[in-house]
Specification:
By secondary structure, the chain is an alpha/beta fold. The protein has ten helices and four strands. The two termini are 17 Å apart.
């Protein structure tokens, strides 16, 4: 089970590094190119400049960015928990450094090997994912022969916050179907 960029890592581990899995559940996964929200692509083009933002502006930018990943909007304490690691002296440069270090060639390599998937795959996607639009899900799903897919209505990229009951049901259903 893998969400966001971990989906790409999980695919790469299986397809390229030959890590065996019984099945794979991808949730709003960054699995194949192109990837990244408009803000992500902007930061990737200007990481040194943005890393110089005054801390209070940086925190506001990160807060708005993360809040935009949720269609419903996370509760204040949830948003605080998601923002905190990316603020302060170590967090601010780390935020921009991790985006600047993003290398889409790993996703291109996933795409080259994705037809080799020989295991059950289900793709879940938030119907209102503004970070990775439904078209990205449709592309990923179309590349995986025999993959199941489900839209999680009313959820953004952070389905675990927007639709926790529906997401839990999908996960439980998938895991149960794979263990019987």
């Amino acid at each position: 089970m893998a969400h966001d960029f971990v989906g790409g890592v999980a695919l790469r581990a299986h397809l390229v590094e030959k890590v065996p899995y019984a099945s794979l559940l991808l949730i709003d996964a960054v699995g194949v190119p192109p990837a990244g929200s408009p803000f992500f692509r902007f930061v990737a083009s200007h990481p040194d400049l943005l890393a110089q933002l005054p801390p209070y502006i940086h925190e506001s930018v990160v807060r708005a960015y993360i809040e935009g990943a949720s269609h419903q909007g996370p509760r204040t304490e949830e948003l605080d928990d998601l923002v905190t690691p990316w603020t302060g002296k170590p967090g601010q440069p780390a935020f921009y450094r991790q985006i600047a270090g993003y290398d889409e060639s790993f996703l291109t390599e996933n795409e080259r090997h994705i037809a080799d998937l020989q295991l059950p795959v289900r793709v879940l996607w938030g119907s209102n994912d503004d970070w990775l639009p439904v078209q990205a899900e449709q592309r990923l799903h179309s590349l995986i022969d025999g993959a199941e897919w489900r839209l999680i209505e009313g959820a953004g990229h952070l389905a675990q916050y927007d639709a926790p009951v529906e997401l839990s049901h999908e996960i439980t259903t998938w895991l149960t179907s794979q263990t019987n």
